[in-house]
Design goal:
- The protein is mostly beta strands.
- It has 1 helix and 10 strands.
- The strands form 3 sheets. The protein has a 6-stranded antiparallel beta barrel. It has a two-stranded parallel sheet with strand order 1-7.
- 17% of the residues are buried.
Length: 121
């Protein structure tokens, strides 16, 4: 039986912030300044998304975080994305989360000084 190789991951492509809407539909920061690795969107993932009516903008990998869930917002270099899928990857060191990003349905205006007080554009 062939032993599965463990992959060592680095996160050198930039920083991402994650936001989520609270009960009042105001954005609240989940995670701040998380390093990420940009990944290639595979044919199967892209095809499946298109069948569901979604267009994948980007696929990133971050150190494992169970806080990032579908529907959360990601901000990279001022560009907003919505999390379409978050998938835990266990065979890496450290364990990782692959995050599929798409264009958001709405754009949010974030006020980082007043967490939860931002609004929609």
């Amino acid at each position: 039986m062939e032993k599965k190789r463990t992959r060592f991951e680095s996160f050198l492509d930039g920083l991402v912030d994650f936001w989520q809407l609270n009960e009042s539909r105001c954005p609240v920061k989940l995670l701040d300044g998380i390093r990420y690795q940009q990944r290639i969107v595979g044919y199967k993932r892209n095809f499946t998304a298109e069948q569901a009516g979604h267009i994948i903008e980007m696929l990133i990998r971050i150190p494992r975080s169970d806080l990032v869930v579908r529907g959360a917002f990601a901000v990279i270099n001022g560009q907003q994305y919505q999390v379409a899928q978050a998938q835990t990857i266990l065979d890496t060191i450290p364990q990782c989360t692959d995050i599929t990003l798409q264009q958001p349905d709405i754009l949010l205006q974030f006020d980082e000084t007043q967490t939860g007080s931002g609004g929609r554009l």
